[in-house]
Amino acid sequence: MSSQEMQARFIKDRLQGRGERLLRSWEALLLAVAVIIFAINVWSSPYFLDPWNLSDATFNFTEKGLIAFALALVIISGEIDLSVAAILALSSTLMGLAMSHGAGTPELVAIGLLTGLACGAVNGFLVSGLGLPSIVVTIGTMSLFRGIAFIILGDKAFTGYPSDFAWFGQGYVFWVISFELVLFVLTAVVFAVLLHATSFGRTVYAIGNNPMAARFSGVRVERVKFILFLLTGLMSGLAAVCLTSRLGSTRPSIATGWELEAVTMVVLGGINILGGSGRIGGVVLAALIMGMVTFGFGLLNVPGIVMSIFVGLLLILVIAVPKLVTRIRQVRRKG
Amino acid sequence: MIRLAGIAKTFPGVRALGGVELSLFPGSVTALVGENGAGKSTLVKILTGIYQPDEGHIELDGRPVRFATTMDAARAGVTAIHQETVLFDELSVAENIFLGHQPRTRFGFIDWKRMNAEARALLERIGARLEPDMRLRDLGIANRHLVAIARALSIDARVVIMDEPTAALSHKEIGELYELVERLKAEGKAILFISHKFDEIFRIADRYTVFRDGEMVGAGLLAETTQSELVRLMVGRDVGQVFPKVPAAIGEPVLTVAGYCHPTEFEDIGFELRRGEILGFYGLIGAGRSEVMQALFGVTRPSRGAVRIDGQVAVIRTPAEAVARGIVYVPEDRGRQGAIIGMPIVSNVTLPSLYRTSRHGFIRMAEEFALARDYTARLDLRAAALDQDVGTLSGGNQQKVVIAKWLATRPKVIILDEPTKGIDIGSKAAVHAFMSELAGQGLSVIMVSSEIPEIMGMADRVVVMREGRMAGTFARDGLTPEILVRAAAGIGEEA
Amino acid sequence: MKALLKHRETQLVAVILAMVGLIALRFPSFVAPASLGNVFNDTSILIILALGQMTVILTKCVDLSTAATLALSGMVAAMLNNLYPDLPVLLLVVVAILTGVLAGAINGLLVWRLDIPPIVVTLGTMTIYRGIIFLISDGKWINAHEMTDAFKAVPRADFLGIPVLSWMALSVTAIMAVLLRRLATGRAFYAVGGNPHAAVYTGIDVGYTRFLSFVLSGALSGLAGYLWIARYAVAYVDIALGFELDVVAACVIGGISIAGGIGTVFGAVLGSLFLGTIKNALPVINISPFWQLAISGSVIILAVAFNARAERRKGRVILKKAEVVA
Amino acid sequence: NVAHAENKKIALVVKALGIGFFDAANKGAQEAAKELGDVDIIYTGPTDTTAEGQIEVINSLVAQKVDAIAISANDKDALVPALKKAMERGIKVISWDSGVAPEGRMMHLNPSSNPLIGNMCVKMAADNLPEGGDVAILSAAATATNQNTWIEEMKKVLPNYKGINIVATVYGDDKTDKSYTEAQGLMKAYPNLKAIIAPTSVGIVAAAQAVTDAGMVGKINVTGLGLPSEMAGHVKSGASKSFAIWNPIDLGYAATMISYNLVTGKEEAKPGAELSMGRMGKVKLDDNSEGAMADPFVYDAKNVEEFAKIF
Ligand SMILES: Nc1ncnc2c1ncn2[C@@H]1O[C@H](COP(=O)(O)OP(=O)(O)OP(=O)(O)O)[C@@H](O)[C@H]1O
Ligand SMILES: Nc1ncnc2c1ncn2[C@@H]1O[C@H](COP(=O)(O)OP(=O)(O)OP(=O)(O)O)[C@@H](O)[C@H]1O
Ligand SMILES: [Mg+2]
Ligand SMILES: [Mg+2]
């Protein structure tokens, strides 16, 4: 029992001021990393600081970022969704199917989003309805959803999307600002508000910290989890619209391996993989960092796999270094 | 036999022990008492090699020893029944007893045959009717505790430590435990007995040691002291009345339960709860009281029966519905079901009443803090700041956060399941005083408790349960402990 | 008998037999002993990996880097074989295993000493290990003709009518069965996963035990790495890409609880065989290749739902009369 | 760097790094660069064979303002928007080996003509099966453009070879283990199988290995497209009687030469044009702006050793 506890009846609201909290936060660390990487990129390639090039670079992370925001909420609630890339593939395939039957752009977008929602509902039902562990359920649906895409498409491809459909993935809203970038920023804001300023967001944290206690506090745990899987499905569908529009075609192997990149983005963003903590701001920064690393290395023609080594190292180091530092400090204080 | 000298232990931010002295003697039971968080369990962990002391040393037969691991401690003859359950659901009874020191064959492989045989012998010795190959997850809570005791005895020890061993046992098993303690004493073992129950301390212990805030503040022979003396040492001041029940005006029925059934847990439960009333639920541990309460709260689904709130039939399928209808539940298992350890106090308190501090789903920080401040102040919560994680509070204060959380929803009925279990005497008095106050304000209270003095002191009426059924309802007047125990144990019924 | 029926493993055996029976109805040649032997042989590597993964999952962790470790160890062995064709194959096998041990130890240390969640650690090392293959091999393939015949011969060599590859799976199974049942360390895996908090009280070092499980998983991945490369006679960066998910799926199908502490060697082997049989049978029974992915996905989901039902807690029963019925 | 600044930058983008065939093509490109003098070759590509990976590579090449991109595509259609953007920024884009849809490139250089390749594959199988018999195809990814074209061509010429039946087409995804398992499945499902045609360098090696392991050498002939260096062993063992391939070195060389000529503006890629390819002579473009380089060349026990040393 610390002496603090014994003191006065009056309890202040906050232990630390806002500024101090911000300064010590994960986001501050990520921001520093982002600035360093930006500086290195500027220094190492003359092509980096060009508005059009930077604009092109944003495509490296916008679609994955859309998925990562929703995935972040799922992970905070203590679950995981590894089927996001497969949902994307299935959404894209069904959009293609609709297009081959003459659907126009608005219908295509609707079908993409609805397919995402439906897939999310399947995951949500299996996880929160039947109470199955999400990590294995979504390993299963990952094969299932992509498998359906393969059944529909086989070795064919859908091409020839309507020309106005191309705007979602290739259009610019203003000068170098692409539609995808605007969408990314808007979604980030929406998710940040949803998670940090609404009672829904609060229950997500409560569930991630202790699902049983949350249930005993009157939180509708199953319903919240179901909604989260729906949201993730929806965002995967949205990403499918963007990616399909950007590629102008669909094959069942589209977006292979994106689930792990999205998870990496979320974890790098400081979301606790075990649930219960993390903020959207971190995910935004992580998306920027990963995008800049990919683009910066790309300008130097470094093979993609070396970039992934770097991202893998970053993932471990960003978590390990602060822990090492506190440990060393402790040892020093004692010794 | 064993002596601790100047033991100190600091956790990040908390000094759990500071310069503790303690001696244990062969053939003698030493009781260790102190408030929650006084450092008793920490001391046990140091004695069994789970923690290393920062300062000080342990002497065994006058020679200094170091317990780097639990195995070191076991080899030196120190064994303990820990406060927390330290068992494994998926393993067999025998393995639970011998895990970490299984009998081996000549080649270093585990000798399952011998292990089972030795486990059987141990279980017989403590009078437990269990098979060594039973899986632990199929056992009830009392039998689990017996396994934990068998585990402690599987080490041929000279020093036996028991950290609140009776907290989870029922009447009958407690009696058997006392006999076991006597036997161990007769065998010349040194025993350290930790408990919050004073009657049992005076019954079985010879000596006492009192801790306060991680320091030893007194020790001696029990024969030379009194209960109030011990309490004064523990708390540092006199504690007023422990059960300050003030009579409250009892009004019309608020909650009526009739023919309430569950396929496997309880049957034919019926009672009435009135405004301003404290209704006690007594029974042996495992009688199914928590099950009934959790059904009322919408955690489990009853199979039959009717619940009326203010005369209206209410169907409650989820805790959320229960809260909406004004029924709230303070669970028995604080750590798992009550507080959300990793979240700040403020979020814990406002979680079920978020709709009140938000507009269109958007939370208003200022209102949220105001609500939390209001209710935590009423409960006299001790904390540094409202955005502190609940996990950093002591057990008693965590309980207060859980209660504050429910009061903030302005309920009609509050169900308290073992509200003072494992809580020290000072905090206990506070909880009781508060319960009384709530009833006085017209709130209806259901209090589940396994402690007779608490039930007798606080309840207006008492429902006794036995094996999932009601064994009787008793008014406060003319109630004796005898009546309660007979009803709970079913004595007199069969005869 | 009734107890036997209740076992997850028994049910799984029944499901596998039923499946093989159904296939046999249409394709009798599938159940010829030689053909079934082939199915087992093809599944051997999955079995070895699943047994390693199982120990990790038992301790409440997960190792997503198994496939990358396999590829790395295999590449190291293949490169050595290419550069120094005179080195004895046994030495190369040992080198592959040691590479795996090193990779596993790095995972284990990060989990043990720095307390980083295993899924994060292995997600990171998964890409790092594959990246290292790219760096050491310069992205080049090592092809059949660049390996010595002795190097390639081991897995397919015949011993008592059964290929060495199958023998490897059988002996790893036997060793793991003894380890998990008869050694204190084996029981510690169960204890650490079943109740990490309580394990501390029984004198088990939770972190160290997890470390050991990662090392073990790494060692088996290393062995599997050599076997894979020698069998398919080619080594490159993307060997066994994505195979880690198959391994986890095999464990889950075999009843290894992802929450830790529950599972048997037999279950892991059956889970692998189940997956192996499906993957082997689908092409044989003429299922369009495009259906295979969806079918294996559905099977995984069904298996999980099935296991969850079997695992569901019976709950404690208070009422006497209910107890008799139950 | 001033001297280099005036060099033309030509990017040779491949399906994935590390594949022997493409490394050989790079050798050819370097040879062309040396011959031309003022060219820097950027040899790049993703690490796995995905369209998304290639798009990222293309974006970074556009950002570096390379002068030309010569690409072997993982996906005929998905790359089109990215390559179109490259062309809008003044970059010359051609495809080689595996093509891009006409909107996404200025011309496509086929290593050989598709009908010839299809015919050659069936012919190699038929030459060893005077009595005819069952034949199966082991392809790469189900989405691979060139594979699918060749398989179509094979089916077209089938009536010319009496008794040859194509009983199945399976996909090994250019992964060794998958190709190996698929080949095994073929042998099990079709006991009368006489030949496996694998028009992919990964698949043919895996199939040959599977046939060897199943003890079917002599009973099943593996043929298709492969690299001499990778196939030498299997030809020797008899698992493969013969296989074909064009010379990837020449292909890389030609692609570089064509790109250079487009960059310098000496030539223009349009239907009917004739483009020069240095020592490889000239290629004539058809209506789709596609041109074929040469016939596939057949390797067997007689000549494989000699070429294995080269690529
Ligand atoms: N692992 C730990 N990390 C941090 N603080 C700890 C840890 N274990 C105990 N403490 C703190 O040390 C103090 C002493 O705790 P301890 O469990 O010994 O109390 P106790 O006397 O056994 O209380 P109770 O009667 O409730 O069992 C408390 O303030 C507790 O919060
Ligand atoms: N076999 C068991 N497995 C898991 N948890 C158990 C088991 N037995 C009891 N418990 C838990 O331990 C706690 C105490 O149980 P207890 O024996 O008090 O039963 P109960 O239904 O709460 O009956 P009562 O409230 O009448 O004592 C409860 O939270 C209960 O869920
Ligand atoms: Mg304690
Ligand atoms: Mg109870």
TrEMBL record, chain A:
<keyword id="KW-0997">Cell inner membrane</keyword>
<dbReference type="GO" id="GO:0005886">
    <property type="term" value="C:plasma membrane"/>
</dbReference>
<dbReference type="Pfam" id="PF02653">
    <property type="entry name" value="BPD_transp_2"/>
</dbReference>
<dbReference type="GO" id="GO:0022857">
    <property type="term" value="F:transmembrane transporter activity"/>
</dbReference>
<keyword id="KW-0813">Transport</keyword>
<keyword id="KW-1133">Transmembrane helix</keyword>
<feature type="transmembrane region" description="Helical">
    <location>
        <begin position="280"/>
        <end position="299"/>
    </location>
</feature>
<keyword id="KW-0812">Transmembrane</keyword>
<protein>
    <recommendedName>
        <fullName>Autoinducer 2 import system permease protein LsrD</fullName>
    </recommendedName>
</protein>
<keyword id="KW-1003">Cell membrane</keyword>
<feature type="transmembrane region" description="Helical">
    <location>
        <begin position="173"/>
        <end position="195"/>
    </location>
</feature>
<feature type="transmembrane region" description="Helical">
    <location>
        <begin position="28"/>
        <end position="49"/>
    </location>
</feature>
<comment type="function">
    <text>Part of the ABC transporter complex LsrABCD involved in autoinducer 2 (AI-2) import. Probably responsible for the translocation of the substrate across the membrane.</text>
</comment>
<keyword id="KW-0472">Membrane</keyword>
<feature type="transmembrane region" description="Helical">
    <location>
        <begin position="108"/>
        <end position="126"/>
    </location>
</feature>
<dbReference type="InterPro" id="IPR001851">
    <property type="entry name" value="ABC_transp_permease"/>
</dbReference>
<comment type="subunit">
    <text>The complex is composed of two ATP-binding proteins (LsrA), two transmembrane proteins (LsrC and LsrD) and a solute-binding protein (LsrB).</text>
</comment>
<feature type="transmembrane region" description="Helical">
    <location>
        <begin position="305"/>
        <end position="325"/>
    </location>
</feature>
<feature type="transmembrane region" description="Helical">
    <location>
        <begin position="226"/>
        <end position="244"/>
    </location>
</feature>
<feature type="transmembrane region" description="Helical">
    <location>
        <begin position="69"/>
        <end position="96"/>
    </location>
</feature>
<feature type="transmembrane region" description="Helical">
    <location>
        <begin position="132"/>
        <end position="153"/>
    </location>
</feature>
TrEMBL record, chain C:
<feature type="transmembrane region" description="Helical">
    <location>
        <begin position="211"/>
        <end position="235"/>
    </location>
</feature>
<feature type="transmembrane region" description="Helical">
    <location>
        <begin position="247"/>
        <end position="270"/>
    </location>
</feature>
<keyword id="KW-1003">Cell membrane</keyword>
<feature type="transmembrane region" description="Helical">
    <location>
        <begin position="12"/>
        <end position="32"/>
    </location>
</feature>
<feature type="transmembrane region" description="Helical">
    <location>
        <begin position="89"/>
        <end position="110"/>
    </location>
</feature>
<dbReference type="GO" id="GO:0005886">
    <property type="term" value="C:plasma membrane"/>
</dbReference>
<protein>
    <submittedName>
        <fullName>Rhamnose transport system permease protein</fullName>
    </submittedName>
</protein>
<dbReference type="InterPro" id="IPR001851">
    <property type="entry name" value="ABC_transp_permease"/>
</dbReference>
<dbReference type="GO" id="GO:0022857">
    <property type="term" value="F:transmembrane transporter activity"/>
</dbReference>
<keyword id="KW-0472">Membrane</keyword>
<feature type="transmembrane region" description="Helical">
    <location>
        <begin position="44"/>
        <end position="77"/>
    </location>
</feature>
<feature type="transmembrane region" description="Helical">
    <location>
        <begin position="290"/>
        <end position="310"/>
    </location>
</feature>
<keyword id="KW-0812">Transmembrane</keyword>
<dbReference type="Pfam" id="PF02653">
    <property type="entry name" value="BPD_transp_2"/>
</dbReference>
<keyword id="KW-1133">Transmembrane helix</keyword>
<feature type="transmembrane region" description="Helical">
    <location>
        <begin position="116"/>
        <end position="136"/>
    </location>
</feature>
<feature type="transmembrane region" description="Helical">
    <location>
        <begin position="157"/>
        <end position="180"/>
    </location>
</feature>
